[in-house]
Design brief:
Blueprint: E1 2-8, E2 15-16, E3 20-21, E4 29-30, E5 33-37, E6 47-49, E7 55-62, E8 70-75, E9 87-91, E10 97-99, E11 111-116, E12 124-131, E13 135-139, E14 146-149, E15 170-171, E16 173-178, E17 183-187, E18 191-192, E19 206-218, E20 223-232, E21 246-247, E22 250-252, E23 257-266, E24 274-286, E25 292-298, H1 316-324, H2 327-331, H3 337-349, H4 367-374, H5 383-396, E26 401-406, E27 409-416, E28 421-425, E29 433-437, E30 440-441, H6 444-452, E31 460-463, E32 468-470, E33 482-484, E34 512-514, E35 528-529, H7 532-535, E36 542-548, E37 554-561, E38 566-573, E39 580-582, E40 586-589, E41 593-603, E42 612-618
Helix pairs in contact: 3-5, 4-5
């Protein structure tokens, strides 16, 4: 019996929810702040004017009063009334705060804010009443936590929003609590128990009798760390060959592959458990079979996001859109993938007759609706529509693309097989370009980092004509913040989505935002991450797993992948010219000497992914 021991002290590769801090300090803790909100912030231009008689009330449930304070955030868009006429804010019946708007303190958004002392907050329901001056925007969603008074706060009415006083909704008010959330979870990637270091060596035939998990943690009173484990016989989770999550510290007779999940909890917001390390011990009986050795491999580690992303799948509407727009013909004569992207970008840019259009109607991000609006130039065309048209067209061709929202601009990112990274494409009428620095094509995070370190003005634009030009003044500074939507299937699904994105200041709470610190600089959004692969996961990559069988000269070959709309794998043996479709796992019968295998994934649109290779030697 052999016991293989692995200690995990670096949790940066682990998936986590927004309530976990695994990047700052030692180990894993609950995040130092969390956001409470009652609405998604879908609507863009619905608001109520406040006065001495017309008041607004909203409520938040706080699980603990042991906080260091909170930041009250309320959406006012461009209204500046309260710069000179104070708004009154009453918290839990205390003496009202007299609030004067400080636009500089609001940074670049339309969210006003007021610091709320911890002494004003209570465990349970917290009531916030706004009045006297200013405005509050509301979201027309089924509410229940907001109400409106017409008599100075003597009586309150729900479902009384809008000019007809008959609309259900919640005020766009959010509370950033300075204290730990009650719960957060961190999850490992799939761990290969035959080689938990992830180096991809050939596994020998083995029987795993058990895997045990122990940990080093600091657990103050009222806190806890709970562990769950699951395992299976394939390197990619599949409920047909994996066990479900089980709350345990020991898995008997697990498969070769396993995951653990740690859930951190606290009863009070002023303390958190600290998970410092995890030790996995697997008891294995290994059959020592000699004669097969790994010579070399090109076998990427797969990067995954903690957040789900919905890719546009095959659909008759997608096929019809691509056919009507002649998208395949558009890119057919391109000499490279990057040239294909440039042709798509230029096509999107040319759909508007007069550039950035202003009209009576603001379309959604549905590419078909955008094109209907461009006909006759009767509707608005913002940068977000240029980006959505490019992203939708690219997705209809089977590429992985999504909109990227930066500070008062929106563009696209697309996965490049040639460069093996996400890169920006800016189809907006004033740009029609990609961005480069020192010969490298950039994504949003690249520009953000360059601007932060003072290299923003060195960035160049590569135009559709292929020329390099200086970047437009101040454009790098717009990457001070950036976000992505969790989907690109707007052609076939309208909701959830923000109404009129870009027409006003940003308020929608459905995007994932990049933040430098776990206590975010832009505190008004729920979904924020410091983990780069939450934004920049790998696409269309395949990882090879090899295991010796008990038959002479034979390997069991399995694959994992990161291919949206996955269809199948194709393999090539010994550098032949033939690629064959295969099912995984497959059996590879070796001949004496060197044996070569190459594999790549193919998606439902027939787009092929990166080739992974392995070379093994069979000794006679």
């Amino acid at each position: 019996m052999d016991t293989r021991r692995t200690e995990i002290t670096d949790f940066s590769a682990c998936l986590r929810d927004r309530f976990i801090d695994a990047d700052f300090g030692a180990g894993v803790t609950l995040a130092p702040t969390f956001l409470l909100t009652n609405e998604p912030g879908v609507a863009r231009d619905l608001y109520e004017e406040l006065s001495e008689s017309s008041r607004a009330r909203t409520e938040f449930e706080l699980y603990s009063d042991r906080v260091s304070g909170a930041l009250l955030l309320f959406y006012v868009n461009e209204d500046t009334t309260t710069q000179t006429q104070p708004m009154s804010i009453s918290v839990n019946g205390a003496e009202p705060l007299s609030h004067i708007q400080d636009r500089e303190h609001m940074l670049t958004g339309g969210w006003d804010r007021a610091d709320i002392p911890a002494t004003m907050l209570v465990r349970g329901t917290n009531e916030f009443i706004f009045g006297d001056n200013g405005v509050l925007f509301f979201d027309p969603v089924p509410g229940g936590n907001s109400s409106r008074s017409f008599d100075g706060g003597k009586t309150w009415h729900s479902g009384s929003f809008g000019p007809g006083r008959d609309v259900e909704g919640d005020y766009m008010v959010r509370l950033r609590v300075h204290g730990h959330p009650p719960e957060g979870a961190v999850t490992s990637d799939v761990i290969d128990l035959s080689g938990p270091d992830g180096e991809g060596a050939i596994a020998l035939p083995m029987t795993i009798s058990a895997v045990r998990l122990t940990s080093v943690q600091d657990v103050p009173a009222g806190t806890e760390v709970r562990f769950e484990m699951r395992s299976g016989s394939r390197p990619r989770f599949d409920p047909t060959c994996w066990n479900p999550w089980t709350e345990t510290m020991r898995l008997p007779e697990p498969g070769r592959y396993m995951q653990w999940r740690a859930t951190l909890t606290t009863a009070e917001a002023d303390c958190t458990p600290v998970l410092t390390s995890i030790i996995l011990e697997a008891d294995l009986e290994v059959d020592e079979i000699e004669g097969i050795e790994l010579v070399e491999q090109d076998n990427p580690r797969l990067a995954r996001s903690s957040y789900a992303f919905t890719n546009m799948a095959q659909d008759p509407r997608v096929d019809r859109f691509a056919y009507e727009c002649r998208l395949e013909q558009l890119i057919a004569d391109a000499d490279s993938e990057l040239e294909q992207f440039a042709l798509l970008r230029d096509w999107a840019q040319r759909q508007w007759l007069k550039g950035a259009a202003r009209g009576p109607y603001l379309p959604t991000w549905n590419p078909r609706e955008i094109l209907e609006v461009t006909k006759g130039n009767w509707g608005s065309g913002f940068c977000s529509h240029y980006g959505a048209l490019f992203s939708g067209a690219a997705a209809a061709l089977g590429f992985s693309a999504r909109n990227v929202i930066v500070d008062h601009h929106t563009l696209s990112e697309i996965w490049s097989e040639e460069l093996q990274k996400w890169i920006l494409q800016d189809p907006y009428c004033y740009y029609n370009a990609t961005y480069e620095l020192d010969g490298e094509t950039l994504n949003a995070l690249d520009i953000h980092k360059a601007a932060t370190r003072g290299d923003g003005e060195r960035i160049q634009m590569r135009t559709f004509a292929g020329k390099l030009e200086p970047i437009k003044p101040n454009l790098p500074q717009t990457f001070c913040r950036f976000a992505i939507p969790p989907r690109n299937n707007y052609l076939v699904q309208d909701e959830p989505a923000e109404i009129g994105q870009g027409a006003t200041q940003y308020h929608y709470d459905g995007y994932l935002w990049w933040t430098e610190e776990v206590d975010p600089k832009y505190p008004e959004y729920s979904l924020q991450t410091t983990r780069e692969t939450d934004f920049y996961w790998s696409v269309n990559q395949t990882r090879i797993y090899l295991q010796v069988t008990k038959s002479q000269g034979e390997l069991l070959v399995d694959f994992d992948h990161t291919t949206p709309n996955f269809s199948h794998f194709v393999v090539c043996f010994d550098d032949s010219d033939t690629w064959e479709q295969c099912e995984a796992p497959l059996t590879w019968t070796l001949r004496e000497g060197e044996n070569k295998l190459a594999v790549r994934s193919v998606n439902a649109f027939s787009r092929q992914g990166r080739i992974s290779r392995t070379v093994v030697r069979l000794r006679g």
